[in-house]
Specification:
249 residues; 4-stranded antiparallel beta sheet; 3-stranded antiparallel beta sheet
């Protein structure tokens, strides 16, 4: 396993992609109203990126046909955008990888449509909290196990299931590079972090405690096995001398 170490200049290129990605997510937050469809969001995202000289890296990746992954309610990851109108109380995760001049940035975010139930609000809050606690461990001298432990403990404290088969990953010129970033683990174990590493942290939590999932017939869509709803929050992170640098905000 060769983990690529990025120079400050290369990290700067990825940050430019990340700025476009963050701006796109800012727009999505405003689009996420009852009646909109994930297909419409997908079209708007693609147009937004092209207008800024960027492209959606997912589109065409291993045959994936869309600019975004759009996962609604019990679909927890890699959902296909479709023409079903979103309803008040729904949640939708929109995951986008932006390519700007050959450099990538990756961010997924779960949005609520109008008001959501208290359990769903807790799911969203806790999953986002886990992401941010994991990011705080992305420091020189820490390990991937330190990140995984923080994420896992947050899920346990919130009585939520972790989808352990879905992991973060290195990123740069390719969407998926070493290392894999697990969302569970033991402190002090795994790859030791050093300056210039760039990877995603992207926990997927479910209201169901098992975290078990099922793969759809399309080969992409991943849904909860028990029908419970899931949420995902993801950022692209660089390990720097100054600490964790979020490239996708």
């Amino acid at each position: 396993m060769t983990i690529r170490i990025r120079t400050p200049e290369e990290i700067g290129y990825m940050r430019e992609a990340g700025k476009i990605l963050a701006a796109c997510h800012d727009h999505i937050a405003g689009w996420m109203v009852p009646g909109i469809t994930t297909a419409e969001i997908d079209n708007r995202v693609e147009e937004f990126l092209y207008r800024r000289g960027a492209t959606p890296e997912q589109k065409g990746y291993k045959g994936f046909p869309y600019a975004t992954c759009a996962s609604v309610n019990d679909v927890v990851c890699h959902g296909f955008p479709n023409g079903t109108p979103l309803k008040p109380g729904d949640i939708a995760t929109i995951d986008i990888v932006v390519n700007k001049d050959g450099w990538l940035s990756d961010r997924g975010w779960t949005y609520q449509v109008g008001s959501v139930s208290k359990p769903v609000a807790r799911l969203l809050h806790t999953t986002h909290k886990a992401l941010m606690k994991g990011i705080q461990k992305a420091r020189i001298g820490s390990t991937l196990g330190d990140i995984g432990y923080e994420v896992e403990q947050t899920a346990r404290q919130g009585r939520l299931g972790i989808v352990k088969s879905l992991v973060g990953h290195g990123i740069g010129r390719q969407m998926h590079e070493p290392p894999e970033v697990l969302h569970f683990g033991r402190p002090g174990t795994g790859v030791k972090l050093c300056e210039g590493m760039v990877f995603t942290i992207e926990p997927v939590f479910m209201l169901g405690s098992s975290g078990a999932v099922l793969w759809g017939d399309d080969g992409w869509t991943i849904s909860s096995a028990d029908g419970s709803w899931g949420a995902q929050y993801e950022h692209t992170i660089a390990v720097t001398k100054e600490g964790p640098l979020i490239l996708s905000e």
